[in-house]
Amino acid sequence: MKRRDLTLIVALIIGVAFSAPLAFAEDMTAKDLVEEARERIVTISVADAKAMFDKGGVLFLDVRTEKEYKKGHIPGAMNIPRGLLEFRIAKMIPDRNASIVVYCRIGARSSLATYTLVRMGYRNVKNMDGGWRAWAKAGYPVE
Fold first, then answer.
1. What is the reported pLDDT for 3?
2. Is 17 a catalytic residue?
3. Alpha carbons 136 and 134: distance in angstroms, whole number
4. Which domains occur in the chain, in start order?
5. Taking the CB of residue 30, how many other CB atoms lie within 10 A of it?
6. In Å, how far are 14, 110, 140 from 76, measured between CA atoms?
7. Of 25, 97, 108, 119, which one's alpha carbon is 20 to 30 angstroms from that of 39?
8. What are 69-94's pLDDT values in tens digits?
9. Catalytic-labelled residue, pool 100, 104, 112, 117
10. For residue range 40-64, what is the model confidence (pLDDT) as tens digits?
């Protein structure tokens, strides 16, 4: 075997042995994933979200399903179901500095979606605690 071939084989073995493996966590539940996301995002109260709504200049992003969205949503809110978020967000909201408030039904899906947006480089994104349910219960405007 030529020295160059041996060097290549050794380099490959070292590269494989010391490469960072994907982080896999055993026994994580959906609740665990949501809690992990919540530790890494900004969450605001429904009252703070309403104040932002009243002031204007903020996009509300509903990450519920299209069927849920059609039953009622925050006026002017955009709908991108969480399962399609990564594929549609850049086209629908290309400005990664846009002020965005994300919500779902109760706040779990929106926590995951907010964390995804943060990881994708969106810099001014917040999760609305309590979601659609809290907004509607407070008697705030709905469409």
1. 63
2. no
3. 6
4. 26-137 (3.40.250.10)
5. 10
6. 54, 17, 13
7. 97
8. 999 999 999 999 999 999 999 999 99
9. 104
10. 999 999 999 999 999 999 999 999 9
Q: Which amino acid is at 142?
A: V
Which one, of 94, 98, 66, 93, lies nearest residue 82 by Cα?
66
Q: Tell me how far CA of residue 82 lies from CA of 57, 66, 102, 127, in angstroms.
A: 23, 10, 10, 13
Enter the tokens of residue 23: 């982080």
Question: Which residue in the block uniquely carries the two structure tokens 């992990």?
Answer: 36
Task: Please give the C-alpha separations between residue 54 and each of 21, 74, 79, 125, in angstroms, as whole numbers.
Answer: 47, 12, 20, 17
Can you tell me the distance from the alpha carbon of 28 to that of 121, in angstroms, rounded to the nearest whole number? 25
What would the two tokens of residue 123 be? 């810099």
